[in-house]
Structure to design on (1069 residues):
């Protein structure tokens, strides 16, 4: 294996297709005779539909049909849950009854011959309601806290309550204590590409060209919804224009597209509007958290209490690992965590980049920063003082952990030593300068995955897996893994993804694509090499006819005899003689025994510098440096891009993003890219991502931990801590806003 | 989108005739088309006036004349703008995004509709969109709304940055209509909402803005536009101010202050201006003037912060102007 594709900064293999416009996204798959569907959302926040004047719209130009709960087919909705669906509750059923659970919920679909006709019909459709006042605020009248039912199961993945020692006594007795409450606004994913589905039926077989981070599950979900065999559903999604988690689940608009197509007996395209994406496709839940830290006067943690509460819908209990990282980030003998949910009259939240950890670690890392000032100890030194030797939440050693190395590398690059520790002490002209640091962590998950490799007569390889590429570079990194394993140049490998009939893979989220799909691709490549070798051994025309497999080996795509001096045989030689492509499947999953022995997480350290205008309160992030220990880096160029992208998300989380709901009817008031703020270029300073070299033989054969989520985690607390350092004002609610900084 | 008919005109006469017959002028379309997509605006007939020869930018003595169809980007980058009225360039560049500035016209900028989210949601009550239906913002989310010039019927701010600068500079408009041509101060273009928030400006039916005339003179030299907002570009002002100072021998001889993001129209602060006359250009004087500016502010449930932020923004903008050479 000397071709060494892994670790090389390859540019994106799909880059040309993307920039020249030949990459096809879901809504680009226009079908012959296609009709257009537009969703009509409820304009009340709770209640029921009392009437729909569909007849008025049916008479409008181009309108073919109006689907409502009155005429929609009753669908099977067989039980089905994937790992990305809430474990407790039932998904929203589309147009199956007259109930309105939240503002924007689909109450009708207008189908027309053109998008304009469908749009206009949808705008004119008069729907009458009996409205009740919804509860959309997590704190206040009508809001009640519940214990997440899935969190008290013995094998719970996210646990409602955990403890070790006696944290409450420990913090009560601690000579130094921080007790603070933190809030994070609701955020919407807001990828560039809207959710879109083109649906077409051929008899009882359904094809969906649909934006999805999980085509295998979209197939299963639609089969369950319509009560048809999964083999009769095909989901195709070769490209995704950003997702951040919003397309992990199959939301009801996919059902509506399929339902509409069946109703009008034509292919139907349904694209959600930006506004609809604020109510129909999930959000990062609002959270309220409290952290209590107890410490000795020399900075050793003695107790940690982390209580958190996240919003969910009334019909599903969405859970995320809000408090989990507090159990393992630092050494602390006494810990108590509590995680609760507040069901509200809104749509169900879902995973958004860095789910759980991004929010929970924000609270923990701000509290650690507060403690550092209370103690008069450098914030980085405080982390070092509390570095654990094992994961104290599971009592297992870490498979690898480079948090302190990350701090050292990033601090050096950032110039942390130039920081004057006193708040409000650093200036650049009139501007107040602040420097802040925070830790990041995210589990190194792994799920079973499979892939198929086909060696072609020209000596090249085709690799297929159902996977997705929402931007991290799956196409490229899998090409590198296959090229390296097969001993081929990357240009001889073609990787395909995004079809539900390809070998199944897990959801494209949770930072496990590289680990899971990458391991499967590697396994499939090894399997196909084995198959090719066996063909050679069985072939009288081969130089290796009848050879013992143990005497043969592969080198740069050639089969050689151990110790032999001949050129051996190439894939092309062997495949050509076989007269057909040689194919093999491979699958991989984490070794359960190893998984039981180690705690597996990526860690990182993030430093940010802000400039705050002391007169008018504007905050700008001038620069940030993140260092990550995330196992082996398959492609440093793409990894750095993914990390700086995550940092941009962290700037949004810290300073801009918040979905605002009108408590009177639950509507998203700023459901618009002009009013839901995400950073623009001018808001983004110099961002740098560094990687600590880490060899972790335990996580998976590739030694990768995943990067997508951890890239966002840590940025928001680093910025919040920098804002405190700059201004002396501790703002504990995100996003931090101008009025928070100038408030006197 | 609501069905509509569409015509292009190439002369002013044609434009005025089309408008007299009920047509709506279309220039850059950056507001109107957006709102038509949401069916907030439902014009039956659009008259594309982009072919009219009204895009010229020129100087007459020390005055700057800007054609109503000049694009924001072209005005902001024009040598005469930069020479005579850099304040106008600064206010333009603080507005919108490069893409929008390339498309949006000066006349359209002044007539753009409000950013109140409830105005832009067809299913919400809004007196501006549907007179008599009520104001959703007063009892709802109103952090971005006005603290001056509000009524119980409407509290939306005027969103233009350019208008704030033009009001500070005493610019006037030239308009033509069925009754001929007339001119009036830009400030008089904007109505207070009062009991008729659906009436936003003082143009007569069928009138067309043809030119903006900005007088030169001492205020042009030390003038700054400061816009405070939650992100650095493509975002409306929480508070903005356009200020101009005439300072001689260490004393302020003349001052102009106008604010955006706080009023239901661009808000001129004449009491603050008067208070600065004869004073030395120092922070104490600026603070005293800013104090006068927030007198009479009536914050809503969600925008108390704007009172202090307006004060701070005025002080800082005056300092910035005073520092100019």
């Amino acid at each position: 294996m000397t071709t060494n594709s892994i670790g090389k900064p390859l540019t994106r293999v799909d880059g040309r297709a993307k920039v020249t416009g030949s990459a096809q996204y879901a809504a680009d798959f226009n079908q012959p005779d296609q009709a257009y569907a537009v969703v009509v959302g409820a304009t009340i926040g709770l209640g029921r539909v009392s009437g729909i004047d569909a007849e008025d719209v049916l008479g409008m130009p181009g309108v073919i049909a109006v689907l409502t709960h009155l005429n929609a087919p009753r669908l099977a909705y067989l039980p089905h849950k994937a790992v990305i669906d809430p474990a407790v509750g039932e998904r929203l059923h589309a147009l199956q009854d007259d109930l309105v659970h939240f503002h924007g919920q689909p109450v009708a679909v207008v189908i027309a011959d053109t998008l304009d006709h469908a749009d206009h019909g949808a705008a004119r459709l008069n729907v009458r309601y009996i409205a009740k006042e919804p509860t959309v605020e997590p704190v206040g009248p009508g809001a009640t806290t519940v214990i997440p039912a899935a969190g008290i199961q013995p094998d719970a993945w996210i646990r409602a309550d955990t403890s070790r020692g006696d944290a409450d006594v420990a913090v009560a007795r601690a000579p130094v204590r921080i007790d603070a409450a933190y809030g994070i606004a609701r955020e919407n994913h807001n990828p560039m590409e809207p959710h879109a589905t083109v649906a077409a039926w051929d008899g009882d077989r359904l094809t969906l060209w649909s934006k999805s981070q999980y085509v295998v599950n979209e197939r299963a979900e639609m089969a369950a919804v319509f009560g048809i065999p999964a083999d009769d559903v095909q989901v195709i999604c070769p490209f995704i224009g950003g997702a951040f988690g919003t397309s992990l689940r199959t939301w009801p608009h996919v059902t509506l597209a399929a339902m509409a197509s069946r109703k009008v007996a034509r292919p139907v395209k349904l694209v959600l509007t930006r506004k609809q994406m604020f109510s129909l496709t999930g959000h990062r839940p609002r959270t309220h958290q409290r952290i209590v830290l107890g410490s000795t006067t020399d900075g050793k943690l003695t107790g940690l209490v982390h209580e958190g509460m996240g919003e969910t819908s009334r019909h599903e209990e969405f859970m995320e690992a809000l408090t989990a990282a507090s159990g393992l980030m630092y050494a602390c003998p006494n810990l108590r965590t509590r995680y609760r949910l507040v069901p509200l009259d809104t749509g169900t939240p879902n995973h958004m980049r860095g789910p759980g950890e991004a929010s929970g670690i924000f609270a923990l890392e701000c509290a650690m920063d507060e403690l550092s000032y209370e103690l008069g100890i450098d914030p980085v030194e405080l982390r070092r003082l509390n570095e654990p030797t094992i994961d104290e939440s599971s009592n297992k050693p870490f498979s690898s952990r480079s948090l302190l190395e990350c701090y050292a590398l990033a601090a050096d690059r950032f110039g942390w030593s130039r920081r004057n520790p006193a708040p409000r002490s650093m200036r650049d002209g009139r501007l107040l300068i602040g420097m802040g640091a925070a830790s990041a962590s995210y589990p190194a998950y792994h799920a079973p995955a499979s892939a198929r490799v086909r060696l072609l007569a020209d000596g090249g390889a085709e690799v297929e897996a159902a996977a997705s590429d929402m931007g991290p570079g799956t196409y490229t990194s899998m090409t590198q893994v296959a090229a390296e394993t097969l001993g081929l140049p990357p240009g001889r490998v073609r990787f395909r993804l995004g079809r539900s009939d390809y070998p199944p893979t897990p959801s494209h989220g949770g930072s496990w694509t590289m680990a899971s799909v990458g391991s499967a691709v590697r396994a499939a490549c090894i399997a196909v090499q084995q198959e090719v070798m066996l063909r050679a051994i069985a072939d009288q025309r081969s130089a290796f006819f009848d050879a013992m497999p143990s005497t043969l080996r592969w080198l740069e795509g050639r089969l050689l005899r151990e110790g032999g001096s001949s050129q051996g045989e190439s894939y092309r030689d062997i495949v050509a003689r076989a007269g057909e492509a040689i194919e093999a499947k491979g699958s991989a999953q984490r070794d359960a025994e190893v998984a039981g022995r180690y705690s597996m997480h990526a860690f990182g350290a993030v430093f940010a510098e802000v400039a705050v205008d002391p007169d008018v309160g504007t905050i700008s992030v001038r620069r940030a440096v993140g260092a990550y220990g995330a196992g082996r880096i398959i492609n440093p160029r793409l990894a750095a891009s993914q990390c700086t992208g995550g940092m941009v998300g962290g700037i949004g989380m810290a300073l801009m993003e918040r979905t605002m709901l009108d408590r009177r009817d639950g509507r998203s008031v700023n459901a618009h890219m002009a009013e839901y703020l995400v950073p623009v270029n001018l808001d983004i300073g110099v961002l740098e991502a560094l990687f600590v070299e880490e060899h972790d033989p335990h996580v998976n054969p590739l030694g990768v931990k995943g990067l997508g989520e951890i890239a966002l985690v840590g940025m928001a607390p680093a910025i919040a801590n920098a804002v405190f350092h700059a201004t002396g004002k501790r703002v504990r609610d995100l996003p931090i806003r101008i009025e928070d900084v100038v408030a006197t | 989108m609501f069905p509509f008919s569409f015509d292009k005109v190439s002369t002013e006469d044609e434009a005025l005739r089309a408008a007299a017959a009920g047509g709506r002028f279309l220039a850059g379309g950056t507001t109107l088309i957006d709102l038509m997509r949401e069916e907030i605006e439902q014009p039956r007939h659009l008259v594309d006036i982009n072919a009219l020869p009204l895009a010229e930018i020129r100087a007459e003595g020390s005055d700057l004349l800007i054609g109503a169809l000049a694009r924001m980007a072209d005005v902001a980058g024009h040598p005469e703008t930069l020479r005579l009225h850099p304040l106008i360039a600064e206010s333009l560049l603080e507005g919108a995004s490069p893409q929008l500035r390339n498309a949006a016209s000066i006349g359209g900028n002044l007539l753009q509709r409000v950013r109140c989210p409830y105005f832009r949601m067809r299913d919400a009550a809004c007196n501006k969109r549907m007179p008599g239906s009520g104001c959703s913002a007063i009892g709802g989310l109103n952090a971005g709304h006005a603290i001056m010039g509000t009524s119980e019927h409407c509290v939306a701010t005027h969103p233009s940055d350019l208008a704030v600068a033009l009001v500070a500079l005493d610019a006037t408009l030239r308009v033509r209509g069925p009754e001929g041509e007339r001119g009036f101060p830009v400030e008089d273009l904007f109505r207070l909402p009062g009991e008729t928030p659906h009436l936003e400006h003082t143009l007569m039916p069928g009138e067309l803005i043809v030119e903006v005339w900005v007088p030169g003179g001492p205020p042009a030299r030390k003038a700054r536009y400061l816009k405070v907002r939650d992100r650095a570009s493509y975002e409306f002002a929480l508070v903005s101010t356009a200020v101009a100072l005439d300072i001689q021998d260490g004393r302020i001889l003349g001052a102009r202050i106008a604010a955006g993001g706080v009023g239901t129209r661009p808000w001129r602060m004449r009491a603050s201006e008067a208070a600065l006359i004869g004073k030395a250009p120092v922070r104490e004087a600026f603070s005293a003037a800013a104090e006068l500016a927030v007198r009479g502010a009536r914050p809503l449930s969600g925008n108390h912060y704007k009172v202090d932020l307006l004060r701070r923004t005025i002080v800082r903008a005056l300092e910035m102007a005073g520092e100019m050479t």
Notes: The longest strand of chain B covers residues 239-248. Residues 305-322 of chain B form the longest helix (18 residues).
